[in-house]
Amino acid sequence: MNVAEAKETLTTKSRVAVLGTLAELHQEPIKYNLNALRRLVKELQPDLLCAEIHPNDWQAGDLSQLPPEYREALLPLSRRTDIIIVPVSGSNQRQLVAPRGQRWLRLRTWIVRLLNGQLRLMQRLANGPQTINSGGFGLLCDGVCSLTAWVCGPEARRAWDESNQALLDNILAAIRRDPGRRALVTVDCRRRHRLEHSLRHAPEVELVDSVDPKSATNCTNFTN
Predict the structure, then answer these.
(1) Contact between 183 and 15 (Cβ < 8 Å)
(2) Label partner for 78 (CA 20 to 30 A): which of 2, 28, 70, 150?
(3) Closest Cα partner for 40 from 217, 212, 222, 195?
(4) What is the CA radius of gyration of the chain?
(5) Smallest Cα–Cα separation from 186: which of 70, 30, 107?
(6) Which residues pair with 19 in a beta bridge?
(7) Quick one: how far is CA 69 from the chain centroid?
């Protein structure tokens, strides 16, 4: 890359939207089911789909253990369209935050299950993609997950922070490899608030509303 190309890469902004997903809850009879997710991504028409899939899992080709939003909705959609899947997960752990260390392990495990259950209940009550991907609900999810990470112990908190940072780094690397493309990032909704906050401060990113491609409120048009 010559100097002119390097400068163009630094000045070219990529439109990026972040969409929170619900794993197995998408299979339940809620408004934000697999069909709604598939329809929303199809309407957004991204060039790149930065998916919370670990690169090692993607390269191995064994996608049977992926959450249903990828296995049953987004990967089949990408095969029928021009959407390019980019695996960006920073952790191959299936459970986002798990208790570590032996001190009070049984009690902390019970508290984590309680917090996860409460979060799942709130996600069911929120129901639709607009609420799930709203700023207020994202802040609530981030707060619950931060509390969960605290209960899990310092080692778990470090792992949580490191996986979020690796996810951000992988997304930015994908954008820098192909600047100017429309990128949709799909992540567990518990990561969305923190990720959006970090992306908003990235100079190469123009953050866009994921649940309304024609919204002009605090965002630009993703599809144009």
Answers:
(1) yes
(2) 28
(3) 212
(4) 18
(5) 70
(6) 186
(7) 12
* Side-chain half-sphere exposure of 116, counting CA atoms within 13 A: 16
The pTM assigned to this predicted structure is: 0.85
Q: What is the pLDDT along the chain (224 residues), one digit of tens a residue?
A: 454 454 455 568 999 999 999 988 888 888 899 999 999 999 999 999 999 999 988 988 878 888 899 999 999 999 999 999 999 998 776 555 565 656 777 888 888 889 888 888 888 888 789 999 998 999 988 888 888 888 888 888 888 889 999 999 999 999 999 999 999 999 999 899 999 999 999 999 999 988 764 443 334 456 66
Say what the alpha-carbon torsion angle 47, 39, 27, 82 is, to the nearest 10 degrees: -30
Contact 64, 32 (CB under 8 A): no
Tokens at 116, concatenated: 């996860």
